Amino acid sequence: MENVLSLVPVLIKMAIVVGVLLLLPLPLTWLERKIAAHIQQRPGPMRVGWHGLLQPLADAIKLLTKEDHIPAEADRMLFSIAPVVALVPPFLVFVAIPIGDPIQMFGTEIALSISDLNVGLLFILAVSGIGVFGTILAGWASNSKYAVLGSLRSIAQMISYEIPMGFSVIGVVMLAGSMQLSQIVSSQQGLWNVVVQPIGFFVFFVSGLAEAQRIPFDLPEAEGDLGAGYHTEYSGIRFSLFMLAEYLVVVVLAFLNVLLFFGGWLGGPAFLPATFWLLLKVGFFIWVFMWLRFTFPRYRYDQLMTIGWKLLLPLSLLNILVSGYVML
């Protein structure tokens, strides 16, 4: 009976996380449209609700009621499961992401994470790499030239940028002496890692942009030359699952940047709760991702590969060597 009761807090936290993540893309789509509009000197969504606040709800209704089309020559099973494969990893990643120190409630200590794994960072990097399989399956199953080209681009891009991303956090792990995210945050008491690991942060941030397939690294779904890339043949609810996954990846990357390099929930004003301070930082990084999308042009494919292999990979290796030398 005690074992069953011990599962109750975990199940409650899981339900809260899933509920928040499912609803989070609604305000984020509105925010991104408004940011784009203000950068381009136009009002953006204004018609549905005050300042277009209900526009995401209208879009959700449209996607839910739109025809679910599957091409006649597509692999129906793979075509159906690809959006789910793309969506599951961002949800799994939040199992290991803490949002604050443990709190006391009703005489019980409650951790502000589903599971604060001692190999949390390794778990996140491993699970996040699975999401590319959704892109690959979507492109292959669609039996469309544009979709296949998009999925092939995605494979090459993920390989090119996951390697420097993994190397870029080794310096952080060396400084903290742990892969547990709460320990990494605690190690930044008094001095954020971005100060002592600027190269690691730069490599991680740029690699994260590429992992999220956001402009200027959105080659797998480049609408200018591939229609919409790997999800060209998708519509309705299946298309919305890909968009949901894309926004959740942005949220995950914002959390990781803050937890690994910007002190997590530490260093905030005394009048602000630590978790709220963390969420403010995360919100800032989400805004930066959206701002970059409407500021920079898309790279050519050869430029994309050059940045990954000739710039970020050597920089990440240099960062490891310098960190090791300094710690001697």
From TrEMBL:
Record GO terms (molecular function): oxidoreductase activity
PANTHER family: NADH DEHYDROGENASE SUBUNIT 1 (PTHR11432), NADH-UBIQUINONE OXIDOREDUCTASE CHAIN 1 (PTHR11432:SF3)
Key word Nucleotide-binding present: no
Family: Belongs to the complex I subunit 1 family.
HAMAP family hit by this protein: NDH1_NuoH
Record-given protein name: NADH-quinone oxidoreductase subunit H
Domain of life: Bacteria
Biological source species: Parasedimentitalea maritima
Keyword Cell wall biogenesis/degradation: no
Membrane-spanning intervals of the chain: 6-24, 78-99, 119-142, 163-185, 191-210, 247-268, 274-295, 307-327
Job description of the protein: NDH-1 shuttles electrons from NADH, via FMN and iron-sulfur (Fe-S) centers, to quinones in the respiratory chain. The immediate electron acceptor for the enzyme in this species is believed to be ubiquinone. Couples the redox reaction to proton translocation (for every two electrons transferred, four hydrogen ions are translocated across the cytoplasmic membrane), and thus conserves the redox energy in a proton gradient. This subunit may bind ubiquinone.
Coiled-coil residue spans: none
Location relative to the cell: Cell membrane; Membrane
E.C. no: 7.1.1.-
Topology in membrane: Multi-pass membrane protein
Keyword field: Cell membrane, Membrane, NAD, Oxidoreductase, Quinone, Translocase, Transmembrane, Transmembrane helix, Ubiquinone
Catalytic activity: a quinone + NADH + 5 H(+)(in) = a quinol + NAD(+) + 4 H(+)(out)
Subunit record text: NDH-1 is composed of 14 different subunits. Subunits NuoA, H, J, K, L, M, N constitute the membrane sector of the complex.
